[in-house]
Amino acid sequence: MEVYATTHRGLEKITAEEIQELGGKLKKYSNGRVYFKCDEKLIDKLNYHARTCERIILLLKSTKVTGLEDIYNEIKDIDFSFIRPSESFAVRSKRVGVHNFNSMDIARVAGDAIIKSYQSSAEKRLKVNLDSPDNIIRVELIHDLLLVGVDTTGDKGLHRRGYRVYQHPAPLNPTIAAALLKISKWKPENILVDPMCGSGTILVEAALMGSNIPPGHLRECEKLQFDHKLKIMGIEKFRKHVKGCQETLSRLGIDFIKIKQGDAEHLEKYVQEADNIVTNPPYGIRVGRKSKIKKLYHNFLKTAKNILTENGSITLLTPQEKILKNTATKLDYEWTETPIIYGNLPVKIFKLTI
Q: Is 211 exposed, middle or buried (0-12, 13-18, 19+ CB in 10 A)?
């Protein structure tokens, strides 16, 4: 089967490596999509085990189109006989690029084409159910590339882990948290610190990864067997976030991660040493916040040097590229960077070493 996984643009290489590790035969990747070949068993495995994928889609067609008429004709030409006459379907559409129509137009045209195709082959009209369909057909137009496939993940993407109790005002997407950990090269035997842990997404993803617990296990099992030898710590400035993070950890049965209320600008007060610092600091996008972000980044990176072990590293996500680079240069850090798109915001993942 030819399949593609969706991920955040810029994380394709990380996701491709994960898919290969799980058994997929990689073809290519671009525009937030990783194309590969696999069997049906591996599709189920990916939906259960993958940490950086958003969706796993069985590809029915990939072709270039110029407009809605082309989209209709290409989809009408697909054999949808795998859908049983008693089952319903819905189209979920997405459009990237400049076109003289919107994603709703694509969904309408695609739906008509699927119904027409099925009537031609099965002599029966398929039922449409937009709320809880038996089959979800993904129709994506990426500039002039039309992708049509069966969404094997469902309406709830794989980033919906379901473990959050406390709703932080700016929660980190778990798939990005997992990618940060993978980029950091953190190993379960290493000391991991998130000094701006918010609601604890990075901490939970590390606990899952370090305990070899697949994300899919969260959706079907109330009791999880974590590795209590993991050395993971969180620090958070605001009491309400500390409390919220502790509630999430407690719900999952994670009692070995310690959360301290403290300031990332004075890390040495709370942590003696760290092999990996992985964090998602404030972005400071609002007007008037730049000076505070400069101060935070400078003091954080300065104090972090005092606790990092010899081969230690800092991995973080930020849109403040200029501030981060200027600060890192002044403090004699070296770094690598990975540009990604988070929502519609261009950001970069930096990995800094001394």
A: middle
pLDDT for residue 344: 87
> Three-state SS for 291?
helix
Residues 67 and 203 in one domain: no
Say how many residues make up the chain. 354
Residue 268 shares a structural domain with residue 349: yes
Domain with 208 in it: what CATH number?
A: 3.40.50.150
Give the integer Cα–Cα distance in Å for 196 and 314: 12
Q: Do 133 and 200 fall into the same domain?
A: no
- Residues of the domain holding 219: 174-353
Residue type at 114? I
pTM of the model: 0.95
Mean pLDDT of successive 10-residue stretches along the chain, which has 354 residues: 96 98 97 96 97 98 97 97 96 96 98 97 93 97 97 96 90 97 98 97 98 91 88 97 96 95 96 97 73 94 96 96 96 97 94 96
| 3 state SS of 321 | helix
CA gap 160, 175 in Å, rounded: 9
Q: Outline where DSSP puts E strands in 65-144.
A: 88-96, 127-128, 135-142
Rounded to the nearest 10°, the torsion over CA 133, 134, 140, 146 is -130
Q: Are residues 250 and 218 in the same domain?
A: yes
Which residues, other chains included, contact 187 with Cβ-Cβ below 8 Å and sequence gap of 6+? Answer: none
Run of H or E residues at 34: strand 33-37
Task: Examine residue 166 and state whether it is found in any structural domain, yes or no.
Answer: no
The total number of structural domains in the chain stands at: 2
- Give the Å distances, CA to CA, from 170 to 52, 77, 198, 241, 274: 19, 44, 8, 11, 25
**Gap between the terminal Cα atoms of the chain:** 45
165 within domain boundaries: no
322 domain residue, yes or no: yes
Pair 135, 88: CB distance under 8 Å: yes
User: Would residue 159 count as lying in a domain?
Assistant: no
What CA–CA distance (Å, rounded) separates 65 from 51? 32
β-bridge mates for residue 61, sequence order: 148
